[in-house]
């Protein structure tokens, strides 16, 4: 594990690595269309892969429900231990639901990559030490992950820089983006909003802030009738690849890529691979914190204006979704935009973020409407 000291040299090195990775991923993305066609198998249906709704109570609450959660542990040790030296430490997770407080012993560690390095309040990996059968976590297995608000790291936030308000609103933005993608009923993780109170072993409250609980990958796979596996993924569903491109382009998220190698099969950044029973690969996207709507100042996003993001979305639709047999997924996004817009209007984000998100939805709704109206079948539906 390489740790970055924030000085001019390391900052330039970090940027160089990011730029090289971005260049390689784009080159690989272009090359996949021509050189690896035999590993991307055509689909009979180019709609989103259908997944059933989660049956877990935690992920069936109204989108603006807030679960009050407390975690008591040695946060100083947890957040100051290097990633290479992280091991689970004892803790206690408590939550209040319908007036009843439930306490669960846990073993906890910090997780993440960029957020581990640059966040004061790092994302959390929690393992339950006792049965969860009579709790809100029933059916989720023994582990959950919590995405936190990050927080300022004493001026070292040159990658995830921003005020406390910005950190909180970016966290909320990521939560609502996940929730909007859930509306599509496809391969995405369910999420549940909470207010997380951080408590030291000495009973001192360090802070209390928004966070969200993420559905385990195994549960996502199960309700999507797929399998999480450590085995190599050799063949990809063309439909799965197209729809994950559509999703990331729709939310203006460029912090992801995919590639293939003989030694490892299909791998990627900010995506995970699941398998169908016939060994066909499907893609689970995650970590949308760097998207250009919530974080336009992130260096990967700041070189392009909002109009340019719109142009990129239009180009993606023209390149991958011009065949009339492949329009089901863009159409499903379009018909869900009114509900997405209503969600944002009622969200906990501040006025600036709400305005930004609604402008994005209005603009991309127009782009989708214009694209689909070129086709007679959809023109009739949209009248």
Catalogue the unreliable spans: 1-14, 16-20, 22-34
For the sheet with most strands, the description reads: 7 strands, mixed, barrel
Continuous helix count: 11
Fraction of residues in helix:
25-40%
Mean pLDDT: 90
Estimated radius of gyration: 21 Å
In what order do the strands lie side by side in the largest sheet? 2-3-4-5-6-8-7
Could you explain the architecture of this structure?
38% of the residues lie in helices and 22% in strands. The longest helix is centred in the N-terminal third of the chain and has 28 residues. It folds into two domains: 180 residues, no CATH class; 165 residues, no CATH class. Helix 6 runs antiparallel to helix 8. It is globular, with a radius of gyration of 21 Å. With 383 residues, the chain is an alpha+beta fold.
Summarize this entry quickly.
It is built from 11 helices and 14 strands. By secondary structure, it is α+β, with helices and mostly antiparallel strands.
Give the topology.
Layout: H1 8-35, E1 40-41, E2 67-73, H2 75-80, E3 89-97, E4 100-110, H3 114-118, E5 124-128, E6 143-147, H4 164-182, E7 191-199, E8 205-214, H5 217-223, E9 227-228, E10 235-237, H6 238-250, E11 257-261, E12 265-269, E13 271-275, E14 280-285, H7 299-302, H8 306-320, H9 328-345, H10 351-372, H11 376-382
Helix pairs in contact: 6-8, 8-10, 9-10
């Amino acid at each position: 594990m390489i740790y970055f000291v924030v000085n001019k040299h390391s900052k330039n090195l970090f940027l160089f690595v990011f730029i090289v990775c971005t260049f390689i991923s784009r080159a690989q993305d272009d090359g996949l269309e021509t050189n690896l066609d035999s590993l991307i198998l055509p689909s009979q249906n180019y709609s989103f892969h259908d997944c059933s709704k989660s049956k877990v109570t935690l992920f069936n609450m109204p989108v603006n429900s807030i679960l009050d959660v407390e975690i008591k542990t040695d946060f100083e040790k947890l957040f100051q231990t290097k990633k290479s030296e992280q091991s689970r430490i004892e803790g206690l997770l408590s939550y209040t639901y319908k007036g009843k407080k439930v306490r669960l012993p846990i073993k906890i560690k910090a997780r993440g990559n960029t957020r581990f390095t640059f966040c004061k309040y790092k994302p959390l990996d929690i393992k339950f030490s006792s049965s969860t059968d009579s709790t809100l976590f029933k059916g989720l297995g023994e582990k959950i992950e919590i995405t936190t608000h990050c927080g300022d790291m004493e001026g070292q936030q040159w990658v995830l820089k921003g005020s406390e308000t910005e950190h909180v609103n970016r966290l909320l933005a990521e939560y609502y983006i996940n929730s909007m993608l859930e509306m599509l009923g496809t391969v995405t993780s369910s999420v549940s909003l909470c207010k997380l109170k951080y408590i030291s072993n000495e009973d001192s409250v360090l802070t209390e802030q928004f966070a969200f609980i993420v559905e385990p990958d195994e549960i996502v796979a199960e309700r999507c009738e797929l399998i999480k596996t450590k085995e190599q993924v050799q063949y990809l569903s063309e439909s799965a690849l197209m729809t994950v491109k559509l999703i990331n382009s729709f939310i203006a998220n460029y912090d992801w890529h995919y590639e293939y190698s003989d030694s490892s099969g299909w791998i990627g950044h900010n995506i995970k691979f699941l398998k169908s029973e016939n060994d066909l690969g499907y893609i689970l996207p995650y970590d949308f914190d760097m998207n250009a709507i919530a974080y336009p100042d992130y260096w990967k996003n700041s070189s392009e204006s909002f109009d340019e993001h719109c142009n990129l979305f239009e180009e993606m639709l023209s390149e991958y979704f011009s065949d009339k047999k492949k329009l089901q997924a863009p159409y499903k996004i379009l018909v869900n935009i009114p509900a997405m817009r209503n969600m944002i209007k009622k969200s906990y984000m501040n006025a600036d973020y709400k305005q930004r998100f609604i402008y994005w939805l209005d603009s991309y709704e127009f782009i989708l409407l214009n694209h689909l109206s070129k086709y007679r079948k959809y023109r009739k539906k949209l009248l």
